[in-house]
Amino acid sequence: MTDLTKWPRLLVVGEPVTREQANEILIRTDSWRFFLNDQAWETAVCDLGDEYGMPVDSMRRLKPGEYSERWRDIEADKQARRERMGILDLHDLANHRIGSSWIGGPHGWCDWDGKIGCSNYNIGKWPTVEDVTEDWQAIAAAFPYLNLHAQVVTDEGEGEVAATWAVRDGEAALVEPVERIVDAEPDDVEGMVFGLMFNAGRERGVSLERLRAALAQVASQQAGEAS
Fold first, then answer.
1. How do residues 8-39 score in pLDDT, each as one tens digit?
2. Contact 110/17 with Cβ under 8 angstroms?
3. CA-CA distance, 72 to 75, in Å (whole number)?
4. How many CB atoms sit inside 10 A of residue 59's CB?
5. What is the largest CA-CA distance in the chain?
6. What is the pLDDT of residue 197?
7. CB atoms within 10 A of CB 56
Protein backbone atom coordinates (compact mmCIF):
# COMPACT_ATOMS: atom_id res chain seq x y z
CA MET A 1 0.00 0.00 0.00
CA THR A 2 1.35 3.41 -0.95
CA ASP A 3 1.83 5.73 2.00
CA LEU A 4 0.33 9.10 1.12
CA THR A 5 1.52 10.56 4.45
CA LYS A 6 -0.44 12.99 6.60
CA TRP A 7 -2.09 15.89 4.69
CA PRO A 8 -0.69 15.23 1.18
CA ARG A 9 -1.06 18.03 -1.38
CA LEU A 10 -3.73 17.55 -4.07
CA LEU A 11 -2.75 18.55 -7.60
CA VAL A 12 -5.34 18.63 -10.39
CA VAL A 13 -5.26 19.85 -13.99
CA GLY A 14 -8.12 19.40 -16.42
CA GLU A 15 -10.27 20.78 -19.18
CA PRO A 16 -12.69 23.52 -18.07
CA VAL A 17 -16.39 22.83 -17.78
CA THR A 18 -19.44 24.95 -18.57
CA ARG A 19 -21.24 27.17 -16.08
CA GLU A 20 -24.06 24.63 -15.76
CA GLN A 21 -21.61 21.76 -15.28
CA ALA A 22 -19.76 23.74 -12.61
CA ASN A 23 -23.06 24.33 -10.83
CA GLU A 24 -23.78 20.61 -10.80
CA ILE A 25 -20.30 19.63 -9.62
CA LEU A 26 -20.10 22.21 -6.85
CA ILE A 27 -23.56 21.49 -5.44
CA ARG A 28 -23.21 17.70 -5.55
CA THR A 29 -19.60 17.49 -4.27
CA ASP A 30 -19.89 19.88 -1.34
CA SER A 31 -20.11 18.17 2.03
CA TRP A 32 -22.97 20.51 3.04
CA ARG A 33 -21.49 20.63 6.53
CA PHE A 34 -21.01 24.19 7.70
CA PHE A 35 -19.56 25.67 10.86
CA LEU A 36 -18.37 29.10 9.80
CA ASN A 37 -17.12 32.09 11.74
CA ASP A 38 -19.23 34.16 9.34
CA GLN A 39 -22.54 33.27 10.99
CA ALA A 40 -24.57 35.55 8.72
CA TRP A 41 -23.33 33.66 5.64
CA GLU A 42 -23.85 30.29 7.30
CA THR A 43 -27.44 31.22 8.13
CA ALA A 44 -28.12 32.48 4.60
CA VAL A 45 -26.65 29.34 3.00
CA CYS A 46 -28.49 27.01 5.35
CA ASP A 47 -31.81 28.80 4.83
CA LEU A 48 -31.38 28.65 1.06
CA GLY A 49 -30.30 25.02 1.27
CA ASP A 50 -33.42 24.16 3.24
CA GLU A 51 -35.55 25.89 0.60
CA TYR A 52 -34.21 23.48 -2.04
CA GLY A 53 -34.15 20.36 0.14
CA MET A 54 -30.39 20.16 0.63
CA PRO A 55 -28.92 18.01 3.44
CA VAL A 56 -27.62 20.99 5.41
CA ASP A 57 -25.51 20.08 8.44
CA SER A 58 -25.01 22.96 10.88
CA MET A 59 -24.91 22.37 14.61
CA ARG A 60 -25.54 26.08 15.20
CA ARG A 61 -29.11 25.57 14.05
CA LEU A 62 -29.98 23.03 16.73
CA LYS A 63 -31.18 23.93 20.18
CA PRO A 64 -29.06 22.68 23.10
CA GLY A 65 -29.67 18.97 23.51
CA GLU A 66 -31.78 18.70 20.34
CA TYR A 67 -29.30 16.58 18.41
CA SER A 68 -28.79 14.07 21.21
CA GLU A 69 -32.55 13.73 21.56
CA ARG A 70 -33.41 13.48 17.86
CA TRP A 71 -30.18 12.29 16.21
CA ARG A 72 -31.74 9.25 14.51
CA ASP A 73 -34.43 11.34 12.82
CA ILE A 74 -32.01 14.14 11.97
CA GLU A 75 -29.46 11.82 10.37
CA ALA A 76 -32.14 9.83 8.52
CA ASP A 77 -33.55 13.07 7.09
CA LYS A 78 -30.12 14.28 5.97
CA GLN A 79 -29.35 10.95 4.30
CA ALA A 80 -32.68 10.98 2.46
CA ARG A 81 -31.94 14.49 1.23
CA ARG A 82 -28.44 13.50 0.13
CA GLU A 83 -29.83 10.66 -1.94
CA ARG A 84 -32.64 12.75 -3.40
CA MET A 85 -30.28 15.58 -4.42
CA GLY A 86 -27.51 13.29 -5.66
CA ILE A 87 -24.89 14.47 -3.16
CA LEU A 88 -21.78 12.31 -3.39
CA ASP A 89 -20.39 10.72 -0.22
CA LEU A 90 -16.70 11.51 -0.66
CA HIS A 91 -13.81 10.66 1.62
CA ASP A 92 -11.30 13.36 0.68
CA LEU A 93 -12.25 15.15 -2.55
CA ALA A 94 -15.21 17.33 -1.62
CA ASN A 95 -15.24 20.86 -3.01
CA HIS A 96 -15.69 23.69 -0.51
CA ARG A 97 -16.60 26.60 -2.78
CA ILE A 98 -19.78 27.72 -1.01
CA GLY A 99 -18.26 28.54 2.36
CA SER A 100 -15.20 27.43 4.30
CA SER A 101 -13.58 28.39 7.59
CA TRP A 102 -10.20 27.07 6.35
CA ILE A 103 -7.62 29.84 6.73
CA GLY A 104 -7.28 30.00 2.94
CA GLY A 105 -11.03 30.36 2.47
CA PRO A 106 -13.21 28.50 -0.05
CA HIS A 107 -11.26 25.95 -2.08
CA GLY A 108 -11.62 22.90 -4.29
CA TRP A 109 -10.60 21.24 -7.54
CA CYS A 110 -13.48 22.90 -9.41
CA ASP A 111 -14.40 26.60 -9.35
CA TRP A 112 -17.56 28.53 -10.18
CA ASP A 113 -16.02 29.85 -13.41
CA GLY A 114 -15.65 26.27 -14.67
CA LYS A 115 -11.91 26.01 -14.06
CA ILE A 116 -10.74 22.51 -13.16
CA GLY A 117 -7.52 22.47 -11.19
CA CYS A 118 -5.88 23.06 -7.84
CA SER A 119 -2.48 23.03 -6.18
CA ASN A 120 -2.89 25.09 -3.02
CA TYR A 121 -4.37 22.78 -0.40
CA ASN A 122 -3.88 19.41 1.23
CA ILE A 123 -6.29 16.54 1.78
CA GLY A 124 -6.36 14.11 4.64
CA LYS A 125 -5.86 13.70 7.50
CA TRP A 126 -4.42 10.28 6.57
CA PRO A 127 -5.93 9.49 3.16
CA THR A 128 -5.36 6.17 1.42
CA VAL A 129 -4.93 5.40 -2.26
CA GLU A 130 -8.03 3.22 -2.04
CA ASP A 131 -10.20 6.02 -0.64
CA VAL A 132 -8.99 8.62 -3.14
CA THR A 133 -9.48 6.16 -6.00
CA GLU A 134 -13.01 5.45 -4.80
CA ASP A 135 -13.70 9.20 -4.70
CA TRP A 136 -12.46 9.79 -8.26
CA GLN A 137 -14.47 6.83 -9.53
CA ALA A 138 -17.65 8.21 -7.95
CA ILE A 139 -16.90 11.68 -9.35
CA ALA A 140 -16.17 10.32 -12.83
CA ALA A 141 -19.39 8.31 -12.90
CA ALA A 142 -21.47 11.30 -11.74
CA PHE A 143 -19.88 13.78 -14.14
CA PRO A 144 -18.77 11.88 -17.26
CA TYR A 145 -17.84 15.12 -19.04
CA LEU A 146 -14.82 15.57 -16.76
CA ASN A 147 -11.39 15.17 -18.33
CA LEU A 148 -8.61 15.62 -15.79
CA HIS A 149 -5.47 14.24 -14.18
CA ALA A 150 -4.86 14.30 -10.45
CA GLN A 151 -1.94 13.59 -8.14
CA VAL A 152 -1.17 13.56 -4.46
CA VAL A 153 2.24 14.71 -3.26
CA THR A 154 3.52 13.51 0.11
CA ASP A 155 4.53 15.67 3.07
CA GLU A 156 2.09 18.51 2.40
CA GLY A 157 3.46 19.00 -1.10
CA GLU A 158 7.12 18.94 -0.12
CA GLY A 159 7.69 15.26 -0.92
CA GLU A 160 7.23 12.96 -3.89
CA VAL A 161 4.34 12.18 -6.21
CA ALA A 162 2.68 9.21 -4.51
CA ALA A 163 -0.10 8.45 -6.98
CA THR A 164 -1.60 9.71 -10.24
CA TRP A 165 -5.14 9.27 -11.54
CA ALA A 166 -6.72 9.82 -14.94
CA VAL A 167 -10.42 10.74 -15.12
CA ARG A 168 -12.15 10.61 -18.50
CA ASP A 169 -15.36 9.37 -20.15
CA GLY A 170 -17.00 8.48 -16.86
CA GLU A 171 -14.12 6.37 -15.57
CA ALA A 172 -11.20 6.93 -13.20
CA ALA A 173 -8.09 4.83 -12.76
CA LEU A 174 -4.62 4.92 -11.31
CA VAL A 175 -1.94 5.47 -13.93
CA GLU A 176 1.83 5.33 -13.76
CA PRO A 177 3.19 8.21 -11.68
CA VAL A 178 4.86 10.92 -13.74
CA GLU A 179 6.50 14.23 -12.99
CA ARG A 180 4.27 16.70 -11.20
CA ILE A 181 1.46 17.84 -13.43
CA VAL A 182 1.61 21.29 -11.81
CA ASP A 183 3.80 22.83 -9.13
CA ALA A 184 2.31 23.01 -5.66
CA GLU A 185 1.56 26.60 -4.73
CA PRO A 186 3.57 27.85 -1.76
CA ASP A 187 1.47 28.70 1.26
CA ASP A 188 0.71 32.43 1.30
CA VAL A 189 0.79 32.70 5.07
CA GLU A 190 0.97 36.50 5.07
CA GLY A 191 -2.01 36.76 2.72
CA MET A 192 -3.99 34.23 4.74
CA VAL A 193 -3.35 36.11 7.99
CA PHE A 194 -4.26 39.43 6.33
CA GLY A 195 -7.51 37.93 5.07
CA LEU A 196 -8.25 36.47 8.48
CA MET A 197 -7.83 39.89 10.09
CA PHE A 198 -9.26 42.28 7.52
CA ASN A 199 -11.47 40.44 5.00
CA ALA A 200 -14.85 39.91 6.62
CA GLY A 201 -16.14 37.97 3.62
CA ARG A 202 -13.19 35.65 3.19
CA GLU A 203 -15.28 32.55 4.04
CA ARG A 204 -17.77 33.25 1.23
CA GLY A 205 -17.10 31.54 -2.07
CA VAL A 206 -20.10 32.51 -4.19
CA SER A 207 -22.87 35.07 -4.37
CA LEU A 208 -26.25 34.15 -2.96
CA GLU A 209 -27.77 34.75 -6.42
CA ARG A 210 -25.41 32.28 -8.12
CA LEU A 211 -25.94 29.73 -5.36
CA ARG A 212 -29.72 30.00 -5.75
CA ALA A 213 -29.44 29.48 -9.51
CA ALA A 214 -27.17 26.47 -9.02
CA LEU A 215 -29.50 24.92 -6.45
CA ALA A 216 -32.54 25.46 -8.67
CA GLN A 217 -30.72 23.82 -11.59
CA VAL A 218 -29.61 20.76 -9.63
CA ALA A 219 -32.98 20.35 -7.93
CA SER A 220 -34.64 20.37 -11.35
CA GLN A 221 -32.13 17.91 -12.79
CA GLN A 222 -32.51 15.48 -9.91
CA ALA A 223 -36.30 15.68 -10.02
CA GLY A 224 -36.20 14.96 -13.74
CA GLU A 225 -33.99 11.92 -13.25
CA ALA A 226 -36.26 10.60 -10.49
CA SER A 227 -39.43 10.91 -12.56
1. 999 999 999 999 999 999 999 999 999 999 99
2. yes
3. 5
4. 10
5. 52
6. 63
7. 19
Which amino acid is located at 69 in the chain?
Answer: E
**CA-based nearest residue to 142, from 165, 123, 167:** 167
Amino acid at 166: A
Amino acid at 167: V
- The predicted pLDDT at position 191 comes to 66
Phi and psi at residue 188, to the nearest 5°: -90, 75
Check residue 155 and report its DSSP letter.
G
Point out the residues of the chain with pLDDT beneath 70.
1, 59-64, 67-69, 71, 188-198, 227
> Counting Cβ atoms within 10 Å, is residue 92 exposed (0-12), middle (13-18) or buried (19+)?
buried
pTM above 0.70?
Answer: yes
The mean of the pLDDT values for the chain is: 90
Count the helices and strands in the chain (H runs, E runs).
6, 5
Q: Which amino acid is at 57?
A: D
Contact 46, 188 (CB under 8 A): no
DSSP 8-state code for residue 197: H
